[in-house]
Protein backbone atom coordinates (compact mmCIF):
# COMPACT_ATOMS: atom_id res chain seq x y z
CA UNK A 1 0.00 0.00 0.00
CA UNK A 2 1.45 3.38 -0.96
CA UNK A 3 0.25 6.87 -0.23
CA UNK A 4 0.62 10.40 -1.49
CA UNK A 5 3.01 12.47 0.60
CA UNK A 6 0.98 14.68 2.95
CA UNK A 7 1.95 18.29 3.65
CA UNK A 8 0.12 19.69 6.68
CA UNK A 9 -0.39 23.48 6.73
CA UNK A 10 -1.51 24.85 10.07
CA UNK A 11 -3.88 27.72 10.80
CA UNK A 12 -3.48 31.23 12.19
CA UNK A 13 -1.43 31.58 15.35
CA UNK A 14 -0.55 27.91 15.34
CA UNK A 15 2.51 25.88 14.36
CA UNK A 16 3.54 22.31 13.69
CA UNK A 17 2.70 21.60 17.34
CA UNK A 18 -1.02 21.46 16.55
CA UNK A 19 -0.59 18.24 14.49
CA UNK A 20 1.18 16.41 17.32
CA UNK A 21 -1.66 13.94 17.94
CA UNK A 22 -2.32 13.27 14.25
CA UNK A 23 1.13 12.50 12.91
CA UNK A 24 1.82 9.32 14.95
CA UNK A 25 -1.39 7.88 13.51
CA UNK A 26 -0.15 8.60 9.99
CA UNK A 27 3.22 7.06 10.85
CA UNK A 28 1.50 3.91 12.05
CA UNK A 29 0.12 3.12 8.58
CA UNK A 30 3.08 4.35 6.55
CA UNK A 31 1.86 7.76 5.41
CA UNK A 32 4.80 10.10 4.93
CA UNK A 33 4.16 13.68 6.01
CA UNK A 34 5.73 17.05 6.62
CA UNK A 35 4.30 19.79 8.83
CA UNK A 36 6.21 23.03 8.30
CA UNK A 37 5.81 25.81 10.82
CA UNK A 38 5.13 29.00 8.88
CA UNK A 39 7.51 31.94 9.28
CA UNK A 40 6.83 34.03 12.38
CA UNK A 41 4.62 31.48 14.11
CA UNK A 42 5.10 28.66 16.61
CA UNK A 43 8.75 27.91 17.28
CA UNK A 44 9.61 30.39 14.50
CA UNK A 45 7.86 33.29 16.28
CA UNK A 46 11.22 35.06 16.63
CA UNK A 47 11.10 35.66 12.85
CA UNK A 48 7.82 37.60 13.02
CA UNK A 49 7.94 41.08 11.49
CA UNK A 50 5.29 43.27 9.79
CA UNK A 51 6.92 42.31 6.47
CA UNK A 52 5.88 38.66 6.81
CA UNK A 53 3.02 38.23 4.35
CA UNK A 54 1.05 35.65 2.46
CA UNK A 55 3.84 35.15 -0.08
CA UNK A 56 6.23 34.35 2.78
CA UNK A 57 4.00 31.51 3.89
CA UNK A 58 3.40 30.30 0.35
CA UNK A 59 7.18 30.19 -0.11
CA UNK A 60 7.52 28.21 3.14
CA UNK A 61 5.22 25.49 1.81
CA UNK A 62 6.56 25.64 -1.74
CA UNK A 63 10.00 24.80 -0.35
CA UNK A 64 8.55 21.57 1.03
CA UNK A 65 6.56 20.76 -2.11
CA UNK A 66 9.61 21.35 -4.33
CA UNK A 67 11.53 18.63 -2.52
CA UNK A 68 8.95 16.11 -3.68
CA UNK A 69 8.65 17.22 -7.30
CA UNK A 70 7.68 15.80 -9.71
CA UNK A 71 5.62 13.50 -7.51
CA UNK A 72 2.41 15.20 -6.44
CA UNK A 73 1.60 15.82 -2.80
CA UNK A 74 -1.63 16.05 -0.87
CA UNK A 75 -1.84 19.57 0.58
CA UNK A 76 -3.87 19.76 3.78
CA UNK A 77 -4.76 23.26 5.01
CA UNK A 78 -6.48 23.92 8.32
CA UNK A 79 -8.35 27.23 8.77
CA UNK A 80 -6.04 30.04 7.56
CA UNK A 81 -3.84 27.30 6.10
CA UNK A 82 -6.53 26.74 3.46
CA UNK A 83 -5.63 30.14 1.95
CA UNK A 84 -1.94 29.23 1.91
CA UNK A 85 -2.84 25.99 0.11
CA UNK A 86 -4.66 28.02 -2.56
CA UNK A 87 -1.54 30.15 -3.06
CA UNK A 88 0.68 27.09 -3.37
CA UNK A 89 -1.71 25.56 -5.89
CA UNK A 90 -1.54 28.82 -7.86
CA UNK A 91 2.25 28.61 -8.14
CA UNK A 92 2.99 24.87 -8.27
CA UNK A 93 -0.15 23.20 -9.68
CA UNK A 94 1.89 20.48 -11.35
CA UNK A 95 3.15 19.24 -7.97
CA UNK A 96 -0.23 19.08 -6.21
CA UNK A 97 -2.15 15.82 -6.54
CA UNK A 98 -4.93 16.55 -4.03
CA UNK A 99 -6.06 19.29 -1.66
CA UNK A 100 -7.90 18.91 1.63
CA UNK A 101 -9.23 22.08 3.25
CA UNK A 102 -10.29 21.83 6.89
CA UNK A 103 -12.81 24.42 8.07
CA UNK A 104 -11.04 27.24 6.24
CA UNK A 105 -11.69 29.96 3.65
CA UNK A 106 -12.14 29.04 0.00
CA UNK A 107 -10.59 31.93 -1.94
CA UNK A 108 -10.51 32.65 -5.64
CA UNK A 109 -7.87 34.46 -7.70
CA UNK A 110 -7.13 37.94 -6.32
CA UNK A 111 -8.88 37.42 -2.99
CA UNK A 112 -7.42 37.49 0.50
CA UNK A 113 -8.58 35.57 3.54
CA UNK A 114 -10.06 38.77 4.96
CA UNK A 115 -12.04 39.33 1.74
CA UNK A 116 -14.06 36.18 2.28
CA UNK A 117 -13.93 35.64 6.06
CA UNK A 118 -17.17 36.68 7.82
CA UNK A 119 -15.09 38.64 10.36
CA UNK A 120 -12.63 40.05 7.81
CA UNK A 121 -13.60 43.69 8.27
CA UNK A 122 -13.45 43.36 12.05
CA UNK A 123 -10.01 41.74 11.84
CA UNK A 124 -8.68 44.61 9.75
CA UNK A 125 -10.23 47.24 12.02
CA UNK A 126 -8.90 45.60 15.16
CA UNK A 127 -5.41 45.35 13.78
CA UNK A 128 -5.39 48.94 12.47
CA UNK A 129 -6.30 50.24 15.92
CA UNK A 130 -3.04 48.90 17.27
CA UNK A 131 -0.38 51.60 17.21
CA UNK A 132 2.21 51.22 14.45
CA UNK A 133 1.88 47.48 14.07
CA UNK A 134 0.67 45.03 11.50
CA UNK A 135 0.38 42.08 13.86
CA UNK A 136 -2.90 40.50 14.92
CA UNK A 137 -2.79 39.21 18.49
CA UNK A 138 -4.20 35.69 18.66
CA UNK A 139 -5.87 35.25 22.01
CA UNK A 140 -6.21 31.48 22.10
CA UNK A 141 -9.70 32.08 23.41
CA UNK A 142 -11.34 28.98 24.87
CA UNK A 143 -13.39 26.70 22.66
CA UNK A 144 -16.17 25.30 24.83
CA UNK A 145 -16.05 22.08 22.83
CA UNK A 146 -12.40 21.42 23.71
CA UNK A 147 -11.41 20.00 27.09
CA UNK A 148 -9.98 22.39 29.70
CA UNK A 149 -6.57 20.76 29.26
CA UNK A 150 -6.67 21.19 25.49
CA UNK A 151 -7.79 24.81 25.82
CA UNK A 152 -4.86 25.44 28.14
CA UNK A 153 -2.47 23.82 25.64
CA UNK A 154 -3.78 25.95 22.75
CA UNK A 155 -3.75 29.16 24.81
CA UNK A 156 -0.16 28.55 25.88
CA UNK A 157 1.00 27.70 22.36
CA UNK A 158 -0.59 30.25 19.98
CA UNK A 159 1.46 33.22 18.79
CA UNK A 160 0.54 36.51 17.04
CA UNK A 161 -0.47 36.34 13.37
CA UNK A 162 0.96 38.71 10.73
CA UNK A 163 -1.80 40.96 9.36
CA UNK A 164 -0.44 40.87 5.81
CA UNK A 165 -1.01 37.12 5.73
CA UNK A 166 -4.71 37.83 6.18
CA UNK A 167 -4.98 40.82 3.82
CA UNK A 168 -2.58 39.94 0.99
CA UNK A 169 -4.38 38.52 -2.07
CA UNK A 170 -3.70 35.04 -3.40
CA UNK A 171 -2.93 34.35 -7.03
CA UNK A 172 -4.88 31.39 -8.36
CA UNK A 173 -5.05 32.31 -12.05
CA UNK A 174 -6.55 29.05 -13.24
CA UNK A 175 -8.99 28.76 -10.37
CA UNK A 176 -9.44 25.45 -8.56
CA UNK A 177 -8.69 22.86 -11.28
CA UNK A 178 -11.74 20.81 -12.17
CA UNK A 179 -9.84 17.56 -12.46
CA UNK A 180 -7.93 17.97 -9.18
CA UNK A 181 -9.43 15.93 -6.32
CA UNK A 182 -10.54 18.44 -3.71
CA UNK A 183 -12.00 17.74 -0.26
CA UNK A 184 -13.59 20.12 2.21
CA UNK A 185 -13.98 19.19 5.88
CA UNK A 186 -16.70 20.88 7.94
CA UNK A 187 -16.22 20.87 11.71
CA UNK A 188 -18.93 21.77 14.18
CA UNK A 189 -22.43 20.86 15.33
CA UNK A 190 -24.43 19.30 12.46
CA UNK A 191 -27.23 21.85 12.76
CA UNK A 192 -24.75 24.60 11.83
CA UNK A 193 -23.50 22.98 8.61
CA UNK A 194 -26.11 24.40 6.19
CA UNK A 195 -25.12 27.98 7.05
CA UNK A 196 -21.35 27.52 7.06
CA UNK A 197 -19.30 30.07 5.10
CA UNK A 198 -17.59 28.86 1.91
CA UNK A 199 -19.88 25.85 1.54
CA UNK A 200 -21.76 27.48 -1.33
CA UNK A 201 -18.47 27.94 -3.20
CA UNK A 202 -17.58 24.31 -2.71
CA UNK A 203 -20.98 23.16 -3.90
CA UNK A 204 -20.85 25.42 -6.94
CA UNK A 205 -17.50 24.07 -8.16
CA UNK A 206 -16.61 20.79 -9.81
CA UNK A 207 -14.49 18.14 -8.17
CA UNK A 208 -15.17 18.85 -4.49
CA UNK A 209 -16.17 16.24 -1.94
CA UNK A 210 -17.40 17.28 1.51
CA UNK A 211 -16.88 15.55 4.84
CA UNK A 212 -18.61 16.49 8.08
CA UNK A 213 -17.57 15.89 11.68
CA UNK A 214 -19.24 16.97 14.92
CA UNK A 215 -16.01 18.38 16.32
CA UNK A 216 -14.35 21.57 17.50
CA UNK A 217 -12.60 23.69 14.88
CA UNK A 218 -9.25 22.18 15.89
CA UNK A 219 -10.26 18.70 14.77
CA UNK A 220 -6.64 17.51 14.69
CA UNK A 221 -6.52 18.12 18.44
CA UNK A 222 -10.00 16.92 19.38
CA UNK A 223 -10.46 14.05 16.89
CA UNK A 224 -7.09 13.07 15.43
CA UNK A 225 -8.31 9.49 14.97
CA UNK A 226 -11.13 10.59 12.66
CA UNK A 227 -8.89 12.91 10.67
CA UNK A 228 -6.19 10.27 10.30
CA UNK A 229 -8.70 7.76 8.97
CA UNK A 230 -9.98 10.31 6.47
CA UNK A 231 -6.50 11.25 5.23
CA UNK A 232 -5.38 7.64 4.93
CA UNK A 233 -8.35 6.91 2.70
CA UNK A 234 -7.94 10.04 0.60
CA UNK A 235 -4.19 9.71 0.15
CA UNK A 236 -4.00 6.05 -0.84
CA UNK A 237 -2.15 6.09 -4.15
CA UNK A 238 -4.72 5.78 -6.96
CA UNK A 239 -2.12 4.01 -9.11
CA UNK A 240 -1.46 1.34 -6.48
CA UNK A 241 -3.25 -1.91 -7.36
CA UNK A 242 -3.17 -2.89 -3.70
CA UNK A 243 -5.30 0.08 -2.69
CA UNK A 244 -8.10 -0.85 -0.36
CA UNK A 245 -10.97 1.06 1.11
CA UNK A 246 -10.42 2.90 4.35
CA UNK A 247 -13.06 2.15 7.02
Architecture overview:
The chain has 247 residues and is α/β, with parallel strands linked by helices. Helix content is 32%, strand content 15%. The protein contains 10 helices and 8 strands. The protein has helices at 23-28, 54-66, 81-91, 113-116, 120-128, 148-157, 163-167, 199-204, 219-222, 224-235, and strands spanning 5-9, 33-34, 73-78, 96-102, 135-136, 161-162, 182-187, 208-213. β3 (73-78), α3 and β4 (96-102) form a beta-alpha-beta unit. α2 (54-66) crosses α3. It is globular and about 55 Å long. The relative contact order is 0.18. Residues 241-247 have low confidence and may be disordered.
Keywords:
247 residues, alpha/beta, 6-stranded parallel β-sheet, two-stranded antiparallel ribbon, 10 helices, 8 strands
Q: Give the strand order, joined by hyphens, for the main sheet.
A: 2-1-3-4-7-8
- Roughly how much helix do the residues carry, as a percent range? 25-40%
Instruction: State the order of secondary-structure elements, H for helix, E for strand.
Output: EHEHEHEHHEHEHEHEHH
Low-confidence residue ranges? 241-247
Major β-sheet annotation: 6 strands, parallel
Described by the principal axes of the CA atoms, the overall outline is globular
Mean pLDDT: 88
- Which structural class do the helices and strands define? alpha/beta
Radius of gyration: 17 Å
Amino acid sequence: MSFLKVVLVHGAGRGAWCWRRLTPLLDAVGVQWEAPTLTGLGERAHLLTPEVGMQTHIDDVNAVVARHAPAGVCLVGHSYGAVVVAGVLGTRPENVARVVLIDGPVVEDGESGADVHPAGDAMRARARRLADTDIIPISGRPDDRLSPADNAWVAASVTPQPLRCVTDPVRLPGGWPRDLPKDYVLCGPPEAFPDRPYLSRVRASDGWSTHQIDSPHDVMIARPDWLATLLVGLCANPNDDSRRSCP
